[in-house]
Amino acid sequence: PEIWFYHLERSTLDQVLPGLLEKTLQRGWRALVRAGNSGTVDDLDEMLWVYRPDSFLPHGRADADHADVQPVLISESGDNLNSAQTLFIIDKSELGNTEGYARCFIIFDGRNDQSVQHARNRWRGLKDSGAELQYWKQDEDGRWARSA
C-alpha cells in the first residue's frame, strides 16, 4: 500500500483526523484507526461523535458489538475486523501487517520530539524495505503539502 506520513505542527489530531476519515468514506472505503492504548480509543470515540456540532462520523470500537460492519473502526489491535481499505496509525501505534490495505496513514505530533524521532525511524525502516512513501506537512497557511 501507499504509506503517507502526516506531520502535525499547526493542527491537532482532533482537527485533522475527522477530515481524513470523511475523505476515506467519500471514496467508498472503510477505515481502521489504530490507537496505542484504551485511553486514546476512548478519546477518539468521543471526539468522532462531537467534533462537529451538525454531524458525526459513523464509527464503532473493535471491543463492541458489530465491529465488522463499522465504516470506521477504532482499535488497539492490528486485526482488520471491518475489512478496511485504509489504516490510520495514531502516533506511535504499531503499523503491523499492511497487506490488504490500499493506503496507510501514519499521523504524528510534530511538537513532540519523541514522536518525531519515532516517525523518522519508521520512515527509514519502511524506505529500506521498499515501501511506497509520501510525507505531508502543513504550510504556513495550514494547507497540506507533499514534501517527499
In short:
With 148 residues, the protein is an alpha/beta fold. It has helices at 13-26, 38-50, 113-128; strands at residues 2-8, 31-34, 60-61, 72-75, 86-90, 103-109, 132-138, 144-146.
What does this structure look like?
By secondary structure, the protein is an alpha/beta fold. The chain is 29% helix and 26% strand. The chain has an eight-stranded mixed sheet, sandwiched between helices. The longest helix has 16 residues, at 113-128. The model has no long low-confidence stretch (mean pLDDT 94).
SSE blueprint and pairings:
Elements: E1 2-8, H1 13-26, E2 31-34, H2 38-50, E3 60-61, E4 72-75, E5 86-90, E6 103-109, H3 113-128, E7 132-138, E8 144-146
Parallel strand pairs: 1-6, 1-7, 2-4, 2-5, 3-4, 5-6
Antiparallel strand pairs: 7-8
Could you name the key traits of this structure?
148 residues; alpha/beta
